[in-house]
């Protein structure tokens, strides 16, 4: 009888991981944030949509319908660009928001995070300059860094990106791309006004770079008037946008999109083929069915009304919670408030003390591509109801008083 012999031990060293992964920053803060999930902690850190607002009945009905009506198709491989009906529905929503869009311009992605990654692959060569807001959405910075980009921060203030600084950097560095979240930005909650949007696209036109407009929050507006997307203010192709169902429907579906023009479409499709062939067929079909059922607008309206109350609860609690001399944003929508404490405070050093008080936030430092500001922090207001938010701000007050 033959017995299987164990594989002899390897005698040569294993090759190192790719340099781009080795260079990626691993964060101490991530380890600390894992502790914020401990029961009893009121966490303003996570940025999670409120699960009790998910339209479970609607989701159940749509998944049941697509499996009953055409189950084999829903479980089969499908085109890389995405489900035709879902692309058309996304295009119709963009068009309603003032951005005329054809279904052919839309590529469905596995969350908008994948859209960012595909665009980094399709657009960025190693060494290319990518301009980013400072502070900016961390996971987008990772996509560009992994593609080998040279990330250059553009200063951003109360009104969003500083357009004069942008023009100056563009003239000196010949960037390939500007990455921006112009509406209810992550992490600041700030929105760029129409005049500044026109100025940003004018700089892009003049200096010949593209703009990536990352726009997952625009439908979560609680006050003020909608502002046209950057992509609606310039010629086709200058601005490529990413959007998402994560904040208006459910993040676990992992459904987002890239809105592009023919000059970029083939590049994004090739990158997506290499990444995952296509986004889940059944999830796309269920989402298309859900949109066709007309339930989404009512669900978004409920979410907006509830998040408005939560934002107001957080803003009401902050004056007593934060040290004298602190400043913070009052966003018209989205999920985040950004606070700046007086010079000398270090929110990273304070996070363990916050956890002792069963409350958490995200320190602002990691959102800065360079030169972190230690006295900043991000607070998300969507996860808990107003009472828990009020209790959370009382705990924050104890953290900053002790
Ligand atoms: N862009 C921004 C600015 C975000 O805040 C997020 C999620 N936090 C994403 C993109 C990615 O979202 P998703 O992949 O769920 O669509």
TrEMBL record:
Q: Respond yes or no to whether keyword Transmembrane helix is given for this record.
A: no
Record-annotated Aminotransferase class I/classII large domain positions: 68-382
Q: Which InterPro entries match?
A: Aminotransferase_I/II_large (IPR004839), Class-I_PLP-dep_aminotransf (IPR050859), PyrdxlP-dep_Trfase (IPR015424), PyrdxlP-dep_Trfase_major (IPR015421), PyrdxlP-dep_Trfase_small (IPR015422)
Q: Which Gene3D superfamilies match?
A: Aspartate Aminotransferase, domain 1, Type I PLP-dependent aspartate aminotransferase-like (Major domain)
**Biological-process GO terms, alphabetical:** alpha-amino acid metabolic process
Its required cofactor(s), as named, are: pyridoxal 5'-phosphate
Q: Which Pfam families match?
A: Aminotran_1_2 (PF00155)
Q: Does the keyword Transferase apply?
A: yes
One molecular function GO term is:
transaminase activity
Q: Alphabetically list the UniProt keywords.
A: Aminotransferase, Pyridoxal phosphate, Transferase
Q: Which SUPFAM superfamilies match?
A: PLP-dependent transferases
Which family is this sequence assigned to?
A: Belongs to the class-I pyridoxal-phosphate-dependent aminotransferase family.
**What is its quaternary makeup?**
Homodimer.
Full protein name: 2-aminoadipate transaminase
Give the organism the record lists.
Friedmanniella luteola
The organism that produces this protein has a lineage beginning with: Bacteria, Bacillati, Actinomycetota, Actinomycetes, Propionibacteriales
């Amino acid at each position: 009888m033959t017995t299987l012999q164990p594989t002899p031990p390897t005698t040569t060293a294993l090759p190192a991981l790719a340099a781009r992964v080795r260079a990626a920053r691993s964060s101490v803060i991530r380890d600390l944030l894992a502790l914020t999930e401990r029961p009893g902690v009121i966490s303003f850190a996570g940025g999670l949509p409120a699960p009790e607002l998910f339209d479970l009945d609607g989701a159940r009905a749509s998944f049941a319908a697509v499996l009953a009506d055409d189950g084999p198709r829903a479980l089969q491989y499908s085109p890389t660009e995405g489900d035709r009906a879902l692309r058309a529905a996304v295009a119709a929503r963009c068009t309603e928001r003032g951005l005329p869009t054809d279904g052919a311009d839309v590529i469905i992605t596995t969350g908008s995070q994948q859209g960012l990654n595909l665009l980094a692959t399709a657009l960025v060569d190693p060494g290319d300059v990518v301009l980013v807001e400072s502070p900016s959405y961390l996971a987008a910075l990772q996509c560009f860094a992994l593609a080998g980009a040279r990330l250059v921060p553009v200063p951003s203030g109360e009104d969003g990106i500083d357009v004069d600084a942008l023009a100056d950097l563009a003239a000196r560095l010949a960037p390939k791309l500007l990455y921006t979240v112009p509406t209810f930005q992550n992490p600041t909650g700030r929105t760029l006004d129409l005049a500044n949007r026109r100025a940003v696209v004018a700089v892009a036109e003049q200096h010949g770079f593209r703009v990536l407009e990352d726009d997952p929050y625009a439908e979560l507006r609680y006050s003020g008037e909608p502002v046209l997307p950057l992509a609606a203010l310039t010629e086709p192709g200058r601005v490529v946008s990413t959007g998402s169902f994560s904040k208006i429907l459910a993040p676990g579906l992992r459904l987002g999109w890239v809105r592009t023009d023919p000059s970029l479409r083939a590049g994004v499709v090739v990158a997506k083929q290499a990444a995952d062939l296509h986004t889940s067929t059944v999830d796309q079909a269920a989402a298309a069915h859900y949109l066709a059922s007309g339930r989404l607008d009512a669900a978004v309206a409920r979410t907006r009304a509830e998040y408005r109350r939560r934002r107001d609860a957080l803003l009401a609690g902050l004056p007593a919670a934060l040290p004298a001399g602190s400043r913070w944003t009052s966003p018209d929508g989205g999920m985040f408030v950004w606070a700046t404490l007086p010079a000398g405070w270090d929110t990273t050093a304070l996070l363990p003390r916050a956890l002792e008080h069963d409350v958490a936030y995200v320190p602002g430092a990691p959102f800065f591509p360079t030169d972190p500001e230690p006295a900043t922090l991000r607070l998300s207001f969507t996860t808990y109801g107003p009472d828990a938010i009020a209790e959370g701000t009382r705990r924050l007050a104890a953290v900053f008083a002790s």
